[in-house]
From TrEMBL:
Alphabetized PROSITE patterns for the sequence: GMC_OXRED_1 (PS00623)
Segments crossing the lipid bilayer: none
Record-annotated Glucose-methanol-choline oxidoreductase N-terminal domain positions: 11-34
Keywords associated with the record: FAD, Flavoprotein
SUPFAM superfamilies in the record: FAD-linked reductases, C-terminal domain, FAD/NAD(P)-binding domain
Protein name listed in UniProt: Glucose-methanol-choline oxidoreductase N-terminal domain-containing protein
Keyword flag rRNA processing: no
Gene3D superfamilies: FAD/NAD(P)-binding domain (3.50.50.60), Glucose Oxidase, domain 3 (3.30.560.10)
Record InterPro entries: FAD/NAD-bd_sf, GMC_OxRdtase, GMC_OxRdtase_N, GMC_OxRtase_C
Length: 483
């Protein structure tokens, strides 16, 4: 085994989830940050806003003054492509008394075109924004095609990591501390493989227990229901591939969008309170263009997709996808074996909350979206729900509440934008893994800095992860000075 010293280790892809996610910039409701900060000093909205601004290079048509940064590395801009149907989405919201606003600004509940983590229509990943500009630093090194396999620990003090590269095992030692940033899944995995985790689970796998902590026992994931697509009377020309490419090279057009998503709304309709509002993503396009996404990414069966989409083929459709913040259903991330090369076991445990609040809220959101399709704005484009009954739900009256509950169970999927597997909380919180300084409870020289420490699932986590990184840098400087 070889010894080395280095500053950073990476996995197979630099940039993590930011190279494959939907690039939606949604910080979330300030009330949820204040809830976070109520038990973790320094994490309320007022305290974290400067760090959101610090990372951001905003170029927005309507950005609230004082809420956005313009000198950071992360490019945030309005979506560079949206169809006339998006205007209908916003017009309808205005007619229903919903505010059209900067949802990452002063207020959050309302409607808008989507803010995207893109630059001139192109994805701005963590790699592009933060890593590449730092490549020339003498104190910065990246090892590609590298997998961290274990945290080196002595007397409950982390002093390095073990990793594999080119089928060889190495050790990297740290002079001050070890920082784990593997994300909501891999950070939990490497902690547990190293002996930091639930005692019983580790002992069952023959892993010596270093620190008994609830790693992986809380896994909150956003979930989306993709079954609400509506036909319109909008006529659409056949796609011009060459023109689409020219548009993209110019920084705009269809190829700058994510499966046609262009609008976003946060609504507190009926029993959905302001604290637990529904998030609506609005997208539009030709129905057949969505086939690959639903079959490959969502892994919908052909039979279900045909029932859902066949009546829509050849027509221009819009979809409103409801996403529920603050889910009460709690999943887990567990080790399959004690081998760090084996994938861990994820259980999103959707709709498992004892009182059925998550299902009730999703059903309310579905019914609300159906009602929205009947408003004057959407009827101006002849919006209709024409999907056929799902094969698994034919025993229920079509479009009844029981039918929709069945459909929600069949189609809802976790976005895998999870949080909380290494949840932040005070020492006396039996669900917490790290403290408000990002340090692992009961350990020295070990921090976790990624989405896994976020205690609540309230928004797409990418913007918050960048904020965490900026704040972590200050916490480290506070302890050690400029390194």
């Amino acid at each position: 085994m070889k010894n080395t010293q280095c500053n950073y280790l990476t996995g197979r892809a630099v940039g993590g989830g930011s190279v494959i996610n939907f690039s939606i910039y949604n910080r979330g409701n300030r009330k949820h940050f204040n809830e976070w900060g109520s038990k973790n000093s320094g994490w309320d909205y007022k305290s974290v806003l400067p760090y959101f601004r610090k990372s951001e290079k905003a170029n927005l048509r309507q950005g609230d003054s004082g809420y956005h940064g313009h000198d950071g590395s992360l490019s945030v801009e309005d979506c560079q492509h949206y169809h006339d149907a998006t205007d209908v989405f916003l017009k309808d919201a205005g007619q229903r008394g919903r505010e059209i606003l900067d949802y990452n600004g002063k207020n959050h509940v309302g409607y808008s075109t989507v803010h995207m983590i893109t630059e001139k229509g192109r994805r701005c990943s963590a790699n592009k924004a933060f890593v590449k500009p730092s490549m020339g630093r003498e104190n910065f090194e990246i090892l590609d095609h590298t997998l961290g396999t274990k945290i080196l620990i002595k007397n409950k003090t982390a002093y390095g990591v073990e990793f594999i590269r080119d089928r060889k095992k190495y050790r990297a030692t740290a002079s001050k501390e070890v920082i784990i940033s593997g994300g909501v899944i891999n950070s939990a995995q490497i902690l547990m493989v190293s002996g930091i985790g639930p005692k019983q689970h580790l002992e069952e796998l023959g892993i010596p227990v270093v620190q008994d902590l609830p790693v992986g026992e809380t896994f909150y994931d956003l979930k989306v229901f993709p079954g609400l697509m509506f036909t319109t009377n909008i006529s659409e020309r056949e796609p011009d591939v060459e023109q689409n490419i020219r548009d993209y090279l110019g920084g705009f057009g269809l190829l700058t969008s994510n499966i046609g998503i262009s609008g976003i709304g946060f609504d507190n309709h009926d029993i959905i309170s302001d604290d637990s509002h529904a998030q609506y993503l609005f997208g539009s396009g030709r129905a057949e263009e969505l086939t690959e996404f639903f079959l490959d990414w969502v892994e919908m069966t052909n039979e279900t997709w045909q029932a859902l989409a066949e009546p829509l083929f050849g027509k221009y459709v819009y979809a409103i996808y409801p996403i529920l913040p603050l889910p009460k259903s709690k999943g887990t991330v567990k080790l399959k074996t004690n081998n760090p090369l084996d994938y861990p076991v994820l259980d999103s445990n959707l709709f498992s909350d004892n009182h059925g609040d998550d299902m009730r809220r999703m059903l309310t959101a579905v019914k609300h979206i159906l009602e929205i399709s009947k408003t004057s704005a959407f009827q101006s484009i002849d919006a209709k729900y024409e999907s056929g009954p799902l094969p698994a739900c034919k025993d229920y009256k079509y479009l009844s509440s029981d039918y929709w509950i069945c459909a929600i169970k069949q189609l809802t999927y976790p976005i895998v934008e999870g949080v909380a597997t290494c949840k932040m909380g005070p020492k006396d919180d039996n669900t917490a893994v790290v403290d408000n300084k990002l340090k692992v409870h009961g350990m020295d020289g070990l921090r976790v800095v990624d989405a896994s420490i976020i205690p609540l699932s309230f928004a797409q986590p990418a913007p918050t992860v960048y904020m965490i990184g900026e704040k972590a840098a200050d916490l480290i400087r506070e302890q050690y000075g400029d390194l």
